[in-house]
Design a protein that fits this description.
By secondary structure, the chain is α/β, with parallel strands linked by helices. It has one domain (4-306): TIM Barrel (Alpha-Beta Barrel). It contains ten helices and 16 strands. The strands form four sheets. The chain has an eight-stranded parallel β-barrel, surrounded by eight helices. α1 (28-41) packs across α2, α1 packs parallel to α8 (269-282) and α5 packs parallel to α6 (207-220). It starts with a strand and ends with a helix. The relative contact order is 0.17.
């Protein structure tokens, strides 16, 4: 554990709307301002989703490229595209579905200008949020897809985040590591880390489940970097637990929870980031700067990775 903790902010999510989060940044111009404000508050990674002209979540690499360009014009944060692209809420009916194919997810890797980081979900998951109206939301990344997407992310020099939604994902990741998919140092290689996603339809967001996941992860990948996020009211207890366990990265923002740790409704993503920074400082940990996060997460040169 270092005394620095990387704070990733997920400021929009795929399903939030102006009604549920009136302050949320929608357009690429608004997101650029949001990125700068969150960076000033202590975030060093910006996890992005984009909207189409109807306000629905989109997987269009052209819109992602516009977002990357606008954010980089205002903020130095590392930009991360959520490679699952996320579910889509129909603006007319409110019904939630998942229209993106593996080809769509691979196409997002062609975003120009390229982001700094890209997430790849391991295995299959039935994403769920209580009280929402779903059509279909099952998401599966096939072994064929993983064996294509992971090397592509690494060859492009992007930082690879593996999204771990349940214990089986850890063991699937171990199979891929044994195949050499992550390079000579496996998931301990610079430019790779795992993200334990709690309470979004896979494993429950409880401290007991996080502890079990963390212990299994330590057994399989003792030197891997770990990020933790959790849904809704469980966000802050689990983020706090993660920092106490020694995890060097946590995620927050309205994609995960629209409230602060005291239960009050947040008025901005900036308030959420500031809240997590305060929690970290209570335990003697400071938010990592963008430069520090880059050193901790981003891949080194090919020669350094092979060493």
């Amino acid at each position: 554990m270092t005394d620095k903790v990387i704070i990733c902010v997920a400021p929009t999510g795929a399903l939030n709307t102006r009604e549920s989060a009136p302050y949320m940044a929608y357009t690429v111009e608004e997101q650029a301002v949001e990125a700068k404000n969150c960076e000033d508050a202590g975030a060093s990674v910006y996890h992005v989703h984009v909207r189409d002209e109807r306000g629905a979540n989109s997987g269009d690499p052209k819109i992602y490229g516009e977002l990357v360009e606008h954010v980089r014009a205002k903020s130095s944060q590392l930009i991360q595209i959520g490679g699952a692209l996320g579910p889509v809420r129909d603006p007319d009916t409110g019904i939630i579905g998942y229209p993106f194919t593996e080809e769509d997810r691979l196409k997002a890797l062609e975003t120009k200008p390229a982001p700094d980081m890209f997430t790849v979900k391991i295995g299959a998951v039935e994403l769920r949020i209580p009280a929402e109206n779903y059509d279909t939301i099952g998401l599966r990344n096939s072994p064929k897809f993983l064996r294509q997407a992971i090397p592509t992310v690494m060859e492009k020099g992007l930082c690879l985040e593996l999204e771990i939604f349940d214990l089986g994902c850890l063991y699937n990741a171990k199979i891929l590591e044994d195949e050499g998919l992550f390079g000579p140092s496996g998931l301990s290689s610079p430019g790779c880390y795992m993200h334990y996603v709690m309470g979004h339809g896979g494993q429950p967001a409880t401290m007991k489940h996080l502890m079990y996941m963390y212990e299994e992860g330590q057994k399989l990948f003792p030197n891997a970097e770990i990020c933790v996020s959790a849904a809704a009211d469980d966000c802050y207890p689990l983020v706090t637990t993660a920092m106490l366990l020694g995890c060097n990265m946590v995620r927050c923002g309205i994609e995960d929870s629209r409230r602060l740790s005291n239960g009050e409704r947040a008025k901005s993503n900036v308030e959420i980031v500031e809240n997590v920074v305060r929690i970290a400082r209570e335990f003697g940990r400071d938010a990592a700067t963008v430069e520090e996060a880059t050193e901790m997460l981003m891949p080194k040169s090919a020669a350094q990775r092979a060493a």
